[in-house]
């Protein structure tokens, strides 16, 4: 069986090939850690005198980065959030106390602890504290509504959820929906910032406050270590264009390796200062929450991302690195808050390749852009454009085209290829032939949580479109977008005798999906098909591409 993880260059995950342990949908998720086989290479035993013992082997885990940072970078600032600042020694102390508090609440190895919060210090701390309690962190998308949050809480079987005070109403709505289904909601821990923050409703009885809970912990608590590198460390729910998000399971080994690989992609060295414009809930902040601890970096937290905050933070905090989707780049170049930068700031961008015009304008402001590609199933970043010094002398247009390339695999992966999804043969590297991106290596997910068929089935936006009484056929592809990188574009054929508008179709999708998953463009026409009746999406992709950006 082929050993690659595959994804089309369009909008949906296609299949998971060999080399990934499937998750048994039955049984208690508390025992999730025991679902993977013990993988041990015995070939080393053939050499006499060689032993494997605690002196020369420990399971890789990014939690070790925090322990080291507390010693090596003890007095260096770890977190800045407005007037709030911590050192690495303080951060570890706070994480140990929170891990202890979680254990006292009954959290044990393999339990899931969820979060619903923006880029604030608590989110940073929980990425260490939760696995230090032996648990699995599940960072939920703050753009989800109550209905989706309730589904994910039920699916993940989260025992506790940490909720930011500004998102309390979303959590309360999710709790109400769970109770309607006779499902016991998780314990709620509210993250306050001031005394005027709202309190949970009386219907939510099992609640705690973040700082109070932490204070109850023991600073001498001995943090739990993974039994094997394959123990899960996090669950990240996909949220692309699928109407049914899937729980992508990361393990300690993959998180460790991708944390180091991503800092390398970003050109980071000792003690970088990183501005958090990428959501920490997204692929655990591209694993940089852990990676910055390895380098003794400083995390500049932003509750809300705005161009004023970006430029002010760069100047005040001496920011050296930041990341963002093409939308962030767009915000920066079109901002009225632009300021001269005191130094060059490295910025990583992912997703759809940014147009050369955007790359040119943002570099004129003093940013140096590097481009990468990845997905939830590869712990975030998997490939990057590795710049060659000889390209510096190329004409500007050609240099910018090269910079927009999504590049080659990082050192945490074994191989990345683009192949025909049927024949599994590599396609020509001509920039024209369409294929499926294949990943294989240590930073490919462990599997989808409780969904053994998720790698063979696609739950697309088309599923919702087909529910509309006027829709006969539908297909969704990506349309280029100067702001978002790409948006969903629906091609629809109506049933005879029906007449509906694009606006009605979009509204219908928004009422059955999270709003950001709904298509922004609807085109009514006959769908191109093969002789066997299969919709020819490659033709539709070309049509959507020719449309250009919506705005």
TrEMBL record:
Pathway field of the UniProt record reads: Phytoalexin biosynthesis; 3,4',5-trihydroxystilbene biosynthesis; 3,4',5-trihydroxystilbene from trans-4-coumarate: step 1/2
- For this entry, the protein name equals 4-coumarate--CoA ligase
Residue ranges of the AMP-binding enzyme C-terminal domain? 460-534
Instruction: Specify whether Ligase is a keyword of the entry.
Output: yes
Q: What is the lineage of its organism?
A: Eukaryota, Viridiplantae, Streptophyta, Embryophyta, Tracheophyta
**Which one GO biological process term can you cite for this protein?**
phenylpropanoid metabolic process
Q: Which residues form a coiled coil?
A: none
Can you give the residue ranges of the AMP-dependent synthetase/ligase domain? Answer: 67-449
Would the keyword Kinase be found if you checked this record's keyword annotation? no
What's the domain of life for this entry?
Eukaryota
State the Gene Ontology terms under molecular function: ligase activity
Q: Gene3D superfamilies, per this entry?
A: 3.30.300.30, N-terminal domain of ligase-like
Please give the CDD domains that the UniProt record associates with this protein. Answer: ttLC_FACS_AEE21_like (cd12118)
Check the record and name the PANTHER family matching this protein.
ACYL-ACTIVATING ENZYME, ISOVALERATE--COA LIGASE AAE2
């Amino acid at each position: 069986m082929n050993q690659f993880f595959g994804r089309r260059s369009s909008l949906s995950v296609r299949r998971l090939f060999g080399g990934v342990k499937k998750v048994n949908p039955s049984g208690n998720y508390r025992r999730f850690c025991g679902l993977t086989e013990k993988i041990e290479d015995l070939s080393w035993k053939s050499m006499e005198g060689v032993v494997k013992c605690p002196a020369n082997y420990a399971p890789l885990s990014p939690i070790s980065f925090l322990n080291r940072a507390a010693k090596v970078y003890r007095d260096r600032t770890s977190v800045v959030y407005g007037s709030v600042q911590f050192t690495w020694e303080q951060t570890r102390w706070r994480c140990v106390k929170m891990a202890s508090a979680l254990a006292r609440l009954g959290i044990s190895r393999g339990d899931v602890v969820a979060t619903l919060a923006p880029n604030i210090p608590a989110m940073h701390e929980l990425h260490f504290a939760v696995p230090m309690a032996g648990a699995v962190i599940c960072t939920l998308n703050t753009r989800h509504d109550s209905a989706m949050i309730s589904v994910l809480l039920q699916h993940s079987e989260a025992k506790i959820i940490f909720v930011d005070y500004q998102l309390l109403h979303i959590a309360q709505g999710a709790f109400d929906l769970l109770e309607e289904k006779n499902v016991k909601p998780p314990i709620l821990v509210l993250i306050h910032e001031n005394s005027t923050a709202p309190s949970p409703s009386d219907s939510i009885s099992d609640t705690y406050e973040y700082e109070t809970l932490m204070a109850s912990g023991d600073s001498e608590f001995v943090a739990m270590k993974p039994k094997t590198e394959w123990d899960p460390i996090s669950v990240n729910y996909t949220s692309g264009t699928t109407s049914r998000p899937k729980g992508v399971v990361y393990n300690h080994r993959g998180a460790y390796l991708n944390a180091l690989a991503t800092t390398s992609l970003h050109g980071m060295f000792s003690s970088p200062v990183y501005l958090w414009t990428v959501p920490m809930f997204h692929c655990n902040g591209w694993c940089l929450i852990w990676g910055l601890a390895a380098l003794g970096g400083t995390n500049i937290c932003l509750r809300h991302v705005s161009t004023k905050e970006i430029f002010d933070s760069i100047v005040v905090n001496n920011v050296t690195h930041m990341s963002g989707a093409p939308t962030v780049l767009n915000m920066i170049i079109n901002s009225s808050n632009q300021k001269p930068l005191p130094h060059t700031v490295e910025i990583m961008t992912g997703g759809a390749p940014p147009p050369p015009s955007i790359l040119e304008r943002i570099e004129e402001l003093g940013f140096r852009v590097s481009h990468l590609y990845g997905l939830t199933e590869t712990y975030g970043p998997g490939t990057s454009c590795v710049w060659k010094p000889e390209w510096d002398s190329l004409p500007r247009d050609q240099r910018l085209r090269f910079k927009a390339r999504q590049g080659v695999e990082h050192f945490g992966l074994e191989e990345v290829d683009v192949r025909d999804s049927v024949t599994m043969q590599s396609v020509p590297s001509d920039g024209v032939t369409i294929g499926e991106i294949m990943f294989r290596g240590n930073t490919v997910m462990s599997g989808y949580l409780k969904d053994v068929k998720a790698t063979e089935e696609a739950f697309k936006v088309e599923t919702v479109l087909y529910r509309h009484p006027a829709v006969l056929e539908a297909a969704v592809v990506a349309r280029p977008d100067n702001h978002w990188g790409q948006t969903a574009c629906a091609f629809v054929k109506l049933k005879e005798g029906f007449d509906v508008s694009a606006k009605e179709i979009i509204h219908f999708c928004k009422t059955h999906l999270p709003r950001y998953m709904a298509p922004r463009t609807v085109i009514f026409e006959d769908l191109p098909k093969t002789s066997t009746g299969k919709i020819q999406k490659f033709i539709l992709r070309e049509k959507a591409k020719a449309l250009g950006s919506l705005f």
